[in-house]
Amino acid sequence: MNLLLVEDEPNVVSVVVRGLAAEGFNVSVAPDGNTGEKMALTNHFDLIILDIMLPGINGLELCKIIKKEKPNVPIIMLTALGSTENVVAGLDNGADDYLIKPFKFAELFARIRMLLRRYNGSVNPDQVINISDLQINLTAKNVKRGDQEITLTATEYRLLEFLAKNKSKILSRIDILENVWDIDFNLGTNVVDVYVNYLRKKIDKNSDQKLIHTAVGLGYVMKEA
Amino acid sequence: MNLLLVEDEPNVVSVVVRGLAAEGFNVSVAPDGNTGEKMALTNHFDLIILDIMLPGINGLELCKIIKKEKPNVPIIMLTALGSTENVVAGLDNGADDYLIKPFKFAELFARIRMLLRRYNGSVNPDQVINISDLQINLTAKNVKRGDQEITLTATEYRLLEFLAKNKSKILSRIDILENVWDIDFNLGTNVVDVYVNYLRKKIDKNSDQKLIHTAVGLGYVMKEA
DNA sequence: TTTGCCCTTGATGAATTTATTACTAGTTGA
DNA sequence: TCAACTAGTAATAAATTCATCAAGGGCAAA
């Protein structure tokens, strides 16, 4: 489960991130509204926690923007004690819930569970693989590098998915042929090389950080380093 | 709108009843858990507000009982400051929301609106999907592109709705066949292609911005870009 | 029953994707 | 360093996959 926390106060961030990590969530943090917007729109999150008072775009605006683009991502707003008007505005902007600071962690966690339960009932969350700034949405079958959408052909996609699912494992050409092409004999071919080449052109060409690596004599690996 | 308030503290009752009446709600009050149970189960309410500390059955128990019998009635719990454990328990018992006393009336009202909106179209308008200048009214089942009304046949509409609900997801022909045509075998057909073609003629033909895209070898997607 | 619309099927050529080949570039180890 | 091997690339031929059309069947309303 990937969560996004948009919050500038370091102690809130620290408490929430540690608490949620302990519960098995993967938490990304944006320190201001603009970063939050970029992250929320370019990456996949299962739930977003927004502070209202933020540098850059404020939480209410951000809530509206996100809900417009991604109506199926639940949002929890955080607000300072006493600013009830904000709460009302937040809920009217599409927020699903809110908490008043200071809040207890158990309370936040209970609300997160409630929202995930509610949303998952109807639409199940997308399955997503992230490797560095490469994002593969297995459910939607689309691929992004940074915020650049990448169009792949069917075979290219199958190859990428196989490499990504086996991140950091060296895969021999035979492994790849068996899993992506469904052939376990006929080794007089270099399709794999050719398709790895195609993938590199689409995925690694415009980036300094190469993700597809050659293990000479062994095969190929997909990894960050 | 009929609301039920189960609460024994007279001043809370007074504030809430007067406030909600002013907003046009019809509020019934039960002063203890047993009365609350009887009223909740025998009458129709659109929403129930439950104090946790109550004479008779306590609010948590009552919540569980009501949710078992009438899972579609939203419930807001009221709890005293500092008893976070109760909150967690309440949400796990099926409560939809909670408020910590003392609370501001505006906050209660915002949460009531949120819940009513979520549970039932009664407070909110029709459910509408907008993709670029295409507008699909799921309630009225009509479709507009720009301000041009578009007439679709039943199957065309079902297909469009499915594509739109899965905006940006690549949907395989099989996905589409299963969800729009209810068949999961018989794959020797090209109905999907033909109907996508029909839809394109009605929706994309007269617009520069195409919304239905083909992902060769994978299926079709509906998206802006 | 007939009419008219809606749905489905099959066929066609066009477009795109895939596989192969042949060649060049790069790497390894004696 | 040089051969021998391994990997990368471009061009092209083969194979899929798609868009579109036209025709026939089914069903409901007149």
TrEMBL record, chains A, B:
InterPro entries per record: CheY-like_superfamily, OmpR/PhoB-type_DNA-bd, Sig_transdc_resp-reg_C-effctor, Sig_transdc_resp-reg_receiver, WalR-like, WH-like_DNA-bd_sf
Keywords, in A-Z order: DNA-binding, Phosphoprotein, Transcription, Transcription regulation, Two-component regulatory system
PANTHER family in UniProt: REGULATOR OF RPOS (PTHR48111:SF22)
Modified-residue entries (4-aspartylphosphate), positions: D51
Source species, domain of life: Bacteria
Organism annotation: Pedobacter chitinilyticus
GO cellular component terms, A-Z: cytosol; protein-DNA complex
Residue span, OmpR/PhoB-type domain: 126-224
GO molecular function: phosphorelay response regulator activity; transcription cis-regulatory region binding
Protein name: Response regulator transcription factor
DNA-binding region, residue range(s): 126-224
CDD domains: trans_reg_C
One GO-annotated biological process of the protein: regulation of DNA-templated transcription
Domain Response regulatory: 2-116
